Amino acid sequence: MLFESGGITENLDGFDQLSWQGGWINASRPDTGEKATLGPSQNPVGLQQLPGVSYGMTHQPTYNPMQAKAPAPPGTGLYPSGPYQPVHPVSSYQPGPPLSSYPAPSGQALLTRPLMGGPPSHTPPQSASPGPRLPPAQATPPPPAVSSSSYYPNPRQPQPMAPAWHYNTAPPPMGQPTSMSIPPRGPVPNHVNPAASSTPSSTPYSSAPPAHVPHSVTQPPGPGMPPTSLHGYTQPGPAPPPMTHMAPHTYQPSRAPYGPPPTGPPPTMKPTPPPTGTLMPNATPPPPKADGTVAGNGPQAPNSYNHVDNKMAGLPQPGPPGRHLGHYPSLPPGYQNTSALHNAGPPMHPAMQAATQPYTQPPQTYQQPPGGPGPAQLSQSLAALSLQSSTPESLRVVNLLQERNLLPPNPMPAPTPCLPQDLQKINCNPEVFRSTLTSIPQTQSLLNKAKMPLGLLLHPFKDLSQLPVVTSSTIVRCRSCRTYINPFVNFLDQRRWKCNLCYRVNDVPEEFMYNPVSRSYGEPHKRPEVQNATIEFIAPSEYMLRPPQPAVYLFILDVSHNAVETGYLNVFCQSLLDNINALPGDSRTKVGFITFDSTIHFYNLQEGLSQPQMLIVSDIEDIFLPTPDSLLVNLNECKELVQDLLKSLPNLFEKTMETQSALGSALQAAFKLLSPTGGRMSIFQTQLPNLGVGALQSREDPNQRASAKDIQHLSPATDFYKKLALDCSGQQVAVDLFLLSSQYCDLASLGCISRYSAGSVYYYPSYHHQHNPAQVECFQKDLKRYLTRKIGFEAVMRIRCTKGLSIHTFHGNFFVRSTDLLSLPNVNPDAGFAVQMSIEENLDDMQVVSFQAALLYTSSKGERRIRVHTLCLPVVNSLADIFAGADVQAITGLLACMAVDRSATASLSDARDAMTNAAIDSLTSYRQSVLTIQQPGLLAPACLRLFPLFILALLKQKAFRTGTSTRLDDRLFAMCQLKYQPLVYALLMIHPALYRVDDLTDEGALNINDRTIPQPRVLQLSVEKLSREAAFLMDAGTVMYLWIGRNCHPNFLTQVLGVPNYAAVPDNLYLLPELDTAESQRTRAFIGWLRDQRPFFPSLHVIRDESQLKPTFMQNMIEDRTESALSYYEFLLHLQQQISK
Amino acid sequence: LAIIKCTFTFNLFYILFPQIIAFDELKTDYKNPIDQCNTLNPTIEKVKKIKRVKIAIKLVLPEYLIHFFFCVMFFCAAEWLTLCLNLPLLAYHVWRYMSRPVMSCPGLYDPTTIMNADILAFCQKEGWCKLAFYLLSFFYYLYGMIYVLVSS
Question: Where are its TM segments located (chain B) (predicted)?
Answer without folding.
Answer: 64-90, 131-150
